[in-house]
Amino acid sequence: MMLSFFHLLPLLLSLAGAHRHPFPATFNVVSYGALPNRITDNTKAFIRAWNDACDREGGGRVLIPRGTFMLDSVMFVGPCNGPVEFVIRGSLEASSDPSRFFSDHWITFKYIDQLTVEGGGYLLGHGGAAWHYNDCATNPRCRPLPATMRFDFVTNSKISHIQSINSKNTHFNLFACENLNISNVRIIAPADSPNTDGIHIGGSSRINIQDTIISTGDDCVSILSGSRDITVTGVHCGPGHGFSIGSLGRSNNEENVTGIVIQNSTLFGTQNGLRIKTWAPSSASLASDILFDDIVMLDVNNPIFIDQQYCPRPPCNGQAQSNVQIRNVTFRKVRGTSSSKFAVKIQCSKHVPCKGINLVNINLAYRGREGQVASSCLNVEGKSYGPQLPSGCL
Ligand SMILES: *[C@@H]1O[C@H](CO)[C@@H](O)[C@H](O)[C@H]1NC(C)=O
Ligand SMILES: *[C@@H]1O[C@H](CO)[C@@H](O)[C@H](O)[C@H]1NC(C)=O
Ligand SMILES: *[C@@H]1O[C@H](CO)[C@@H](O)[C@H](O)[C@H]1NC(C)=O
Ligand SMILES: *[C@@H]1O[C@H](CO)[C@@H](O)[C@H](O)[C@H]1NC(C)=O
C-alpha cells in the first residue's frame, strides 16, 4: 500500500503532541450503531463508545454528531486511562414514555478525572409530561424523577456550551465533585415547573460556575451540605427561586458549608434573590464565609433572605429552632427592585444567632402597595456599612 503524507498526518500529529497535548482519538456514537431517528434507544451504542474512549491509553473523545438521539438512563463510569471529552453537537432526547420516567438519573458520569462535556448541543429532558409526578400535594402517585445530568465523584473537569431544556427534575446535579468548572451553559424550564433546580451542588469543593443563563422553576443554583469553595460569577437567574444556600440541617450528620462567593450576577423576577435557608428543628452544622457581591435584581420577591425557619409545607413547628450556625456572611453592592415590602429579611435561630452578618451598600427599592420598603432582623449580630435602602436592620 502507498503511504502518502496524509495517511501519516494523524500519526505525525500524535507523535508531535504525544507528551503535551495527546491527539484524542474520536469515538463517534454513529459508528457504534447509534441512530438519530428519535425512536431507537441508543444507550448501548453510547456505552460502547464511552468504554472505548475511556479505556484508551491517553484518553479519547466521544462524539455525538448533529441529529437527535433518544437515550434511556445511562451511566458513564470511570476511572479512565486519560482525559475524556464528551462532545455533544446534536441533541440527546429523554424518553417521554411514563413507564420509563422513574429512575434517579438520566445521564450520569461517575468516578472520572479530567472529563470535558461540551459541544454546543442540547439535552432535551421532556419534563412536561412528567412534572405532575413531582407534586405530592395533588398527585398520590408522586415519585422522584430523574435529574438530567448527574456528576458523582468527578474531578478536575469542565462542562461548557451545553443547553439543558425542560429537565424532569434538577438539570445538573453535582455530588462529591472537586475542581469542576461550568461555563456558558444555558438552562431553560418554565417558571412553574416543579423541582427543576438549575445546578444543585452537594459534598463538593472548588466548583466554579461562570457566564451561564438559568431560567427555571426552582433554585437557579442550590448549594448544600458539605460544599466548600464554590464560586458563581456572571450568572443570570430568572425566572426561578434564586441563589440558595440550603436547605441545611434537615438530616443528621450534615457537613459544614463554607467559602461561597456569588458575584457579578443578575436576578430577574425570581421568587428569592440571595437566600440561606435552614430547617427548624435541625441538626447542628455551620454555614460560614459567604460573600454575595455586585448583584443586580429586578422585581425579586425576597431579595436578601436568611430563613432559619424553613418549612415549605405544613406541619411546621413555629417554636422549634435551627441548630445551623450562620457566621461571616456579607451582602455587598446589592441593588435593584424588590417586589415585596421586606427587601431584607434576616431571621436567625434563637439557639444559635447569626454572627458577623455585614450589609454593605444595599439599594433595593419597592414601589408597590404595601408601603415603604422595609427590613426585618431577628437574632442577628452584624453591622451595616455605606448607604442602606432599606435601613434599620443592623
Ligand atoms: C477552573 O477554574 C479555575 C479558576 O478559573 C482554574 O484555576 C481551574 O484550573 C479550572 N479547572 C479546570 C478543571 O478547568
Ligand atoms: C460580569 O458578568 C458578565 C457576564 O454576565 C461578564 O460579561 C463580565 O465580564 C463580568 N464582569 C466581571 C467584572 O467579572
Ligand atoms: C463544622 O463546624 C463546626 C463549628 O465551627 C466545627 O466544630 C466542626 O469541626 C466543623 N466540621 C467539620 C467537618 O469541619
Ligand atoms: C469571612 O469570609 C471571607 C470570605 O467571604 C473571608 O475572606 C474572611 O477571612 C472571613 N473572615 C473571618 C473572620 O473568618
TrEMBL record:
Family: Belongs to the glycosyl hydrolase 28 family.
Stored SMART domains: PbH1 (SM00710)
The organism's place on the tree of life at top rank: Eukaryota
Major subcellular site: secreted
Official protein name in the record: Exopolygalacturonase
One of the GO BP terms on file: cell wall organization
Cellular location(s): Secreted, Cell wall
Gene3D superfamilies with a match to the protein in the record: Single-stranded right-handed beta-helix, Pectin lyase-like
Keywords: Cell wall, Cell wall biogenesis/degradation, Glycosidase, Hydrolase, Secreted, Signal
GO MF entries: polygalacturonase activity
